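Batch manifest, entry 17 of 40.
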Amino acid sequence: MTRIIICRHGNTFDKGDVITRVGARTDLPLSISGIEQARGLAKYFDAGMSQFNFNLAFCSSLLRTYQTADFILTSGHGVKDLNILDFLTEIDYGQDENKPEADVVARLGKKAISLWDEQALPPEGWNVQPELLTQSWKEFFAKHQNHKGDILVVTSNGIARFALDAVDEIATDAPRKLRTAAFGIVEIENGLSTLTAWDIRASKIGNLI
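Output type: structure tokens
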């Protein structure tokens, strides 16, 4: 059986910071709380203390995903090299890129944000291709369906949600929005992909978003 852990990167803002809509064109590092979240993930997935042992790992080119993955992989896993996949890079929020979240909500309205968070329907002006992202996830699952072992994938909120459309079955509660430093598990056996966990957090540290 192939097991793929899809993890969202840690926080890029701390309590008291002005939270902005961070997308593909805003390459922020992990914040202090984000580093603590990443350390929490490393402890949770420790190869010597848990049931997980990653022998293949992927992230986007964005620093926040690389840093999160790097923390996880220092905890005794079989792979040390990170593979960069372009499709894992966060979406482009268009004119809302890196704008304060309050300004984004004021422009789009709460309903548009809710539709994005609950149904993955992109608001007007965002550069998102849902069909292409879903297909990219499907191709990723198909390519690695015969891999023996655990695969780590670290990506962003706007990308992770489309994995839900790419699996064959969903066997758990699965809100579209994956919180910072939360993860899901896709298990593939005999060509059938099943989402068995989603939006699980290793710790409650840094619960900003």
